[in-house]
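Hey, can you fold this one?
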Amino acid sequence: MHTNSCLIVYILLLVSDSPISVWIDGSSIIQNVFVEARQRPGGANFALNRFGVKIWWQSTGGLTLSKMKNRIRIMIRFEDPPSYIIVHIGGIDIGNIRLGYLHYQLVKFMSRLSNKLPETTLISSQVLPRLQWRYSNNGNCMDKCRRRLNSSICVHMTKHGSCNIRYPDMKATHEFLAEDGEHLTKMGNEFFLNIIQGALEAIISNKTGGITFPDDYSKL
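Sure. Predicted structure:
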């Protein structure tokens, strides 16, 4: 499925002087997906380590945007800047922070991160659908907020040369979501990992930025 992209990544490594480093940062969803990834044939590096790609997973349960800001600030202070950073954030804040202000804070965060890491490609991972939200029982209202936030952040990211990952086929059903209505089932984790892997291969092989993966907007 990803053979052509893997070949391009390999060619890029041949003409590059340094390895490709990727940070993936998020909440317990990222933590659970990391555990699932380690059990796959390609492991937590999606078998891209043979091309010099090194993925560093960072995750904390209950991670809010404000907590992520602090953690990434520390990571930047003590680690070399990554080639790419995937940020999966926002779901826990929906319903607790006014949508307009949450959008403003996310855009501000991404802009500052871009300024601090000018050689790093930023990648936003869209908020997933849920059956249960922390701060509201009105699932329809929360999902509308989620869609609006995802859409506006996608526009901002691609407009400024960053990238965006979407999950258009993931639905708010127990096929994808665990009993708590928030975390993912095994199938949901596998689906999430397939999208992340495909996105990384497409973005790394393209190298131009401004990419949304997948790009089928008919399912937005």
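Confidence is low (pLDDT under 50) at residues 7-16. Let me know if you want another pass with a different chain boundary.
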